[in-house]
Amino acid sequence: MMKSFRLTFLLLSLTIVAKAQVELSKKGQTAIVTYEKYFEENKDVHLKEFLELVSMPTVSSLQANRPDIDKAAAWIVKKLQAIGMTTAQVMQTDGPPVVYGSWEGAKGKPTVLIYAHYDVQPVKESEWTIPPFEPKVVDGKIFGRGTSDDKCGVMIPIWAVEAILKKDKALPVNVKFLFEGEEEVGGPNLHKFMINNKELLKADFALNADGGQYSESIPSICMAFRGSAQLEFNVKTANYDAHSGSFGGKTANAVKATSEIIASFYNKNGSVAVAGFYDNVPAITAAEREMIAKVPYDAAADMKELGSTADVGDTNYTALEKLWYRPTLEIVGMQGGYTAVEGFNNIIPGSATARITCRLVGSQKGDEVIQAIVKHIGKNTPAGATVTYKFRPGWAHPIKFPSDNKAYNYVANALTTVFGRPPLQTGEGGSVGSLVDIKEALGLDAYSFGVAIPDERYHAANEFLRLSSIRKGQMLYCNYFMYVGEQEDKAKK
């Protein structure tokens, strides 16, 4: 789940779901009570399982961690088999494998496809208070890389299916699991996998377990995501780092050259100066601006949370306009010269590297945006420097979701039941490319149905998941399965 900070979870609309909540039948409500009792009886077992999965360093961006990814995939398959799934298997792609599982014993009932990912972001261990892959529970929070993003998204729906099968020996709907192993690097192979397995993945509804809620007490459904594309470039000015006394003043400096290239990306008003960057970016509509004007955005509170001191970017747009409807070009990493924590080395760096992430909107295509940046760099490379590139395979499309169909209403009803209030509609400045793949390959809108909370530091050091979110998520899925089964039965009568 490429998610972001609290700012991205502000309301897309102040309008709360208008439809009244539809309650489960008495039989369904009784069943829900038995499922919750099962979760309570097995909470220690489930926590132990979760800690075991989190302890596996499934960092998809590092080839050295591929054995851990394969180990985790096999572990998930074993768990799916243990709970009684009809099918559970590791399926190979051109990258990390997909884990697929299914239970299709509900004849004549709809099928729900649940997406999540078991890979995680890399870590900088020196920034963690506990080892990131030695998860630990502290004050009601489970600390560890992948706890919130997105191994909870893998395990919570599995536990929900487990409870129902243990108690009822059957599910009220058919369920298929699709767990990806490379979401955190853009999921370059998922689309091909889904196209090649359309019949296997065929479903009536889809849920995105790589999602979150507005807060512990306020549910939300994310209605829009930006896309993303990545690029790494290396600037070389010499074969090695030169002595700053012997060669200083006449030798090109790779760090300086890289900084000049980066500075050339932006205009004085904060907009991106790369020619063609804004091609295929739609204008913000009057309706969108009217909606944003109603949002109670507190810039001071947002900056306080981040520890920042200024709102930056294109001055022609407000903060929320920039976040939800405008593309970005961000420098996400830079390295060159002597960067050890201590000491000082008098050198002229001979090479430097920078990494870029672009967030995409509208009809922007990642490959076209990256090529525009490469062309810009070529025109703005200082004398004495040469540039080489490392291209990331694949890119994530932007996507929006409708709120006028029963798929949305089923999700909203489950959230209302568990949280005791209707969900807010939210936006997300980050990207989940798999949602586009699901839409394009299967024709389904995969609505967000996860339990992550914005302050849980996903992608950062000291990531955590609230223990309370596990139970809440388990009940969400049980209510959803029961509700969809009952409503679809009613529709046939």
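Next protein, fold it too.
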Amino acid sequence: MNANPVDLAETLGTSGVPVLEFKRTAKREGKRGDAVGNAVNEGAPERGDDRHRIATLRNYRSLMPLAHDARKPMFDLKAADGARGTTQKYVQTCYREFRGLAEGVLARTEGLARS
């Protein structure tokens, strides 16, 4: 079923400010919809072709609430912060990925300083 979300919201009786805002957004997106649709359909750039990519990071959704509560970076969580078992392995993976990102940025900035 491909119902228009605006029509569906009005049919369900949930009209109001959120629906009006959605209409404005839908109208704005409609003006550039072809460009957005083409960009989405292109897919991800090929690995070898993307020389500007520094790193690819995962979405650490499960670590974010722990990091907020502990007031620490996600890659510095300990068991006392609630990162136990498999979550601690995830923290270690997060650390490795962010370290790779930091080293990539450092290598690029050092290359610029020499130029």
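About the second fold: Residues 63-114 form one domain.
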